[in-house]
Specification:
binds glutathione, single chain, alpha+beta, Glutaredoxin, Glutathione S-transferase Yfyf (Class Pi), Chain A, domain 2, 4-stranded mixed β-sheet
Length: 161
């Protein structure tokens, strides 16, 4: 059975959980205490050199880190990540967008807010709010003429963003 190394408040972990649910794939959860340093142990760094969750462990022990790579792996062969070249590239466009414009901007603001660190990071928070507003405006434009980010069909891009 597949194993997901996860931390429940994580939105990156949430992406994989949602797709597991949509695809009805059974999996084990292994919770990682990222704030207690478990992600920095040799054992965990062997699973993901970057030390973050989520990590997907395959039945044979091989691992995949980075939430969007996990989405792509799980969705292969399903309508959520179709084979057609243009469709696939459009989905990847939004997956990369999410990692550059959403996760480190809006995701970081969320993290600071939930953990009471917003005031501590006030100077950076203002810049991130402005960048977050630009990201949301880009999403509005991206969704102006289509119901889903990559066109007419729901895909892993919508889950990620
Ligand atoms: N770009 C990565 C980010 C992974 C990441 O930063 N995960 C956070 C939780 S959302 C984490 O584990 N942080 C603890 C750490 O990196 O030490 C992804 O999309 O999976």
């Amino acid at each position: 059975m597949l194993t997901l190394y996860d931390y429940l408040p994580s939105q990156n972990g949430w992406k994989a959980r949602v797709l597991f649910g949509l695809l009805n794939i059974p999996y084990h959860t292994r919770l990682v205490s990222i704030f207690e340093g478990e992600g920095r142990t040799d054992a965990f760094l062997a699973l993901n050199p970057a030390g973050g969750i989520p990590v997907l462990e395959l039945e044979d022990g091989r691992t995949i880190a980075e939430s969007n790579a996990i989405l792509a792996y799980l969705a292969e062969g399903t309508p959520f990540f179709p084979a057609e070249r243009y469709q696939r590239a459009k989905i990847m466009q939004w997956l990369f967008f999410e990692q550059y414009h959403v996760e480190p901007i809006i995701g970081t603001l969320r993290f600071w807010t939930l953990t009471g660190r917003l005031e501590l990071n006030r100077v950076m928070a203002d810049a991130k709010r402005a960048a977050g507003a630009r990201a949301l405006a880009a999403l509005e434009r991206g969704l102006a003429n289509t119901p889903f980010l990559a066109g007419e069909a729901f895909s892993i891009a919508d889950i990620a963003v």
